[in-house]
Write a structure and sequence with these properties.
This protein has one domain: TIM Barrel (Alpha-Beta Barrel). It is built from eleven helices and eight strands. An eight-stranded parallel beta barrel has the order 1-2-3-4-5-6-7-8, surrounded by six helices. The protein starts with a strand and ends in a 13-residue tail after the last helix. Bound molecules: 2-phosphoglycolic acid (PGA). The site of 2-phosphoglycolic acid has 13 residues, from β8.
């Protein structure tokens, strides 16, 4: 049984004090949520402060990116071990903003995945298509390449520490969510793809979460889909009430509650 995961990607928002306030409010509001993994991904500057606040809670902290090399002359970069040292146990990798604005390709993202796994953390690998790719009928080819190349040389055991986030680029920050049927179709495709690369158990156990304009009013419908195991939330994660409502989504029937 896959434990749902709801992650908040704070992107380039919030000072240290603002981040601490949001983390404190969420620790209070979500104190009773034990059946869902909750991850907050602040800016690098606020990671330690947020991690300290979340220490006594079940909320985990994630980085939004990292560099594959452990150390060296890489001005402006942060290593996986440094993120772990600051309190992270998850790192978001290959977000479409990194791919589109900073030119990250699958090979670079794959190197980061290995760095995160070596540092003993979990990786959230983001994949997703542009509207143009979807309209041209290239959806599955694009996603297939992103998943296969992003996970190159990752073994079955390491896959326990990998989460895949399907984030259609046209749905990010636009208010347009993929319909739950469209999202479900893609999630099922990705699970099938994993089965071709890894063992059936890995395909069954890997969490595939959805991202792109997730809000309190669409989370239930998304989570009702059998292959949607959680959400990567951008805009709505900056608001405590909205993120708490998303993390407290009503549990659909197919999720037998083994984690309460
Ligand atoms: P959004 O962002 O929820 O604001 O669409 C999601 C993401 O970029 O991870």
């Amino acid at each position: 049984m896959r434990k749902p995961l709801i992650a908040g990607n704070w992107k380039l928002h919030k000072t240290i004090n603002e981040a601490k306030d949001l983390a404190k409010t969420l620790c209070t509001k979500l104190a009773d949520v034990h059946n869902t993994d909750i991850v907050l991904a602040p800016s690098f500057t606020a990671i330690s402060a947020v991690a300290e606040i979340c220490q006594e809670s079940t909320i985990k902290v994630g980085g939004q990116n990292c560099f594959p090399e452990p150390q060296g002359a890489f001005t402006g970069e942060v290593s996986a071990a440094q993120l772990n040292d600051a309190g992270c146990t998850y790192v978001i990798l290959g977000h479409s903003e990194r791919r589109q604005l900073f030119g990250e390709d699958d090979a670079f993202i794959n190197a980061k995945i290995h760095a995160v796994l070596r540092a003993g953390m979990s990786a959230i690998l983001c994949v997703g298509e542009t509207l143009e790719q979807r309209e041209q009928g290239d959806l599955f080819e694009v996603l297939g390449a992103q998943v296969r190349n992003g996970l190159k040389d990752v073994n079955d055991t390491q896959m326990e520490h990998v989460v895949i986030a399907y984030e259609p680029i046209w749905a990010i920050g636009t208010g347009k969510t993929a319909s739950s049927d469209d999202a479900a179709e893609v999630h099922a495709y990705i699970r099938g793809l994993l089965q071709g690369v890894f063992s059936p158990a890995v395909a069954q156990n890997t969490r595939i979460i959805y991202g792109g304009s997730v809000k309190p009013d669409n989370i239930s419908e998304l989570m009702a889909q059998a292959d949607i195991d959680g959400a990567l939330v951008g805009g709505a994660s900056l608001n405590a009430a909205d993120f708490a409502a998303i993390a407290n989504f009503p549990r659909p029937l197919h999720m037998a509650d083994t984690h309460r």
